[in-house]
Amino acid sequence: MWTERAIGQWYFKGTDFDLTPSRKDGLSMDEERTRRAKGVKFIQDVCFDLKLPQITIATAATFLHRFYMRRSLLKFHHYDIAGTCVFEACKTEETSRKMDDVARICAKKAQKNSALEDPAEFAKWRHTINKNEPFLLGALEFDLHIEHPYRMLLKYARELKNDKNILEKDGAKKLAQSAWAIVNDSLRTPLCLRHRPNVIASAAIYIAAKLSNVRLNDDPSQGQTWWSIVNADILQVAGKYK
Amino acid sequence: MFIEPDERDHQIRRKYNKTKKIGEGTYADVFEGTEIATGRKVAIKKIKLGKSQAGGANGIELSAVREIKALRELHHPNVIELLDCYSYRGNLNLVLEYLDSDLEMIIKDKTVIFESGHVKSWMLMTLRGLDHIHRNWIIHRDMKPNNLLVAPDGQLKIADFGLARDYGDGQEKNMSSQVVTLWYRAPELILGAQQYGAAVDIWSVGCIFAELMLRVPLFADESEFVVLDKMFQALGTPSEEDWPGMSLLPKTFKFKKYPKPPHLFQAATKAAIELIDKMLAFDPNKRVTAKEALSHTYFKAKPFPTHPSKLPKYSRPKSDDKHKIPARYYSSSEDSVTSSPAPTAPGGSGVGLPASSSVEPSSSSSSQQLSSVRKNKRKAEDLDSLNEDEEDSEGIRDQYQDQVCQEQRGHDNISKNRKKRPRKRIARILNYSSSPNVSE
């Protein structure tokens, strides 16, 4: 089915990252990672000023990572694409912001000058976003619906509530909160191109549990294991294959 | 593995042959085309860039983005299929199924007689499509006969996802209540609810169900509150028990109390009445879901739903080329050659009078023409259906498969896609006070 093909094409093997358009253009792996991270940092800053929810940030970041699997960083600057991704994510996540507002904040963040009032610079950003929008949609192959790990974390918070291993009051909630922060940090890496959201969510829960010395149930005979709550494959969570 | 986007666009573009422009909407031009490999007709929607309102400063129209997002997720025989997307020279192009008529045209075609099996079949297909949409956590938010397109093989397809959006299990707040064409708008939306769900689509389907039986829109008026009043007249003003939480909605007020009248649809079967009552329940939590409705006894009782291939079709007049394009493709000034009779009976049974076929010529005052443009949009389509002769069914052949759900990829489909209507619905709300019944 078309949908399945469309989703499957956005997950990559580790070796695929040697073949990205940017790598073909001669950029080193490290440099590509750095620029992707800078792009996402830019997205986070702009979204913060626009008071956008975390879902919109995550969608914009996923757009950016997917975009650079189709186009080269040397031909499309990461700030330009980050701004366009924010604007597009606003539309797809029903958190609309005006083009003028997005362009203004982008200009300020790009120049690292929050007092900037330069109409020419704002107009330039509007033009950039307008120009790049069709490129972005084309490179994304019009897949605008993005599933995020956040919803799975909410499921964890619900399911782990009665887990007897978690002694602390509101333990499940706190666990999910720190996992949420871990997922936020993961946005700067192309993790969303390697693993499905349920795998990322259960890995984040595992790390969060390790950090707070909580032992989650990993024995199927004792009921549901922590990875099966979101139907993740433990071998994938452990990074054994794919 | 890594297909260059430009190469991909090029490949897709070469799959189709664009022939002629068939329509123009707020955010897109619509072209007729063919898939070269199969000869299948398609509609290609070319999205205009930088031409939107607000000085072209908002990039690609939000409704275009919504439509792409929703249709990429949905694949069902009763939902219009997005075949391909590509960008070319900075323009976006959507390739869609090509469908030539919609349910509104068929309802208005007075030469067609509806049997209860026909109504049942259309309802079944609508609910199947809607169930698929809701299963994917999408609400359509603009269900109306005009957006239910009919394929040459009789399959009904839900189209126009320009208002569609995701609804999650999370309590989404601040959703706009200014959605759905007024006549099909659920009471909670009229009362300004900002948290709502799939039930708003079911209300619209209930209105469509009634419209299929009555052959006129059930709650037709220009003003939100008159529509609400008609609902209460027709179904009885809900009490606090009928609809807990009604008094907490933003735009609620002290309603006029109407008793529950004898049922509107005396002629319908018991099962049909029960289903329509469940769809038009005031409390969104008590309204049936699409899935529940599909397993209702109405669909199992006799008469069974008519096979899609046997359903009545809209037959286009053959005479001249202009009529091959539905009236709404033309500017409204062209439409306003007739004046409308008073659209509703004031204080009547709560149901609008038939959008009657007794269309009278207009008196020539230009101001009258202007203010009746909006109403005449529907009337003009009436005219179209009056002018037609029945002999035309060119190329529409009986070559259907037996399974109701089987999608047919006919290669000689004579069909026509429709494009976006201009955003009249907002104008309709805002201007209701300034548009008196001039023809009275």
From TrEMBL, chain A:
GO terms for molecular function: cyclin-dependent protein serine/threonine kinase regulator activity. The keyword Magnesium does not apply. Keywords: Cyclin. GO terms for biological process: regulation of transcription by RNA polymerase II. Pfam families: Cyclin_N, CycT2-like_C. InterPro entries: Cyclin-like_dom, Cyclin-like_sf, Cyclin/Ssn8, Cyclin_N. The keyword Protease does not apply. Residues 41-138 form the Cyclin-like domain. Belongs to the cyclin family. This is 5964_t:CDS:1. It comes from Ambispora leptoticha.
Automatic annotation (TrEMBL), chain B:
ATP binds at I22, G23, E24, G25, T26, Y27, A28, D29, V30, K45, K46. Residues 383-393 have a biased composition (Acidic residues). CDD domains: STKc_CDK7 (cd07841). Keywords: ATP-binding, Kinase, Nucleotide-binding, Nucleus, Phosphoprotein, Serine/threonine-protein kinase, Transferase. The active site is at D142. Its EC number is 2.7.11.23. GO terms for biological process: positive regulation of transcription by RNA polymerase II. Residues 416-427 have a biased composition (Basic residues). Residues 308-440 are annotated as: Disordered. This is [RNA-polymerase]-subunit kinase.
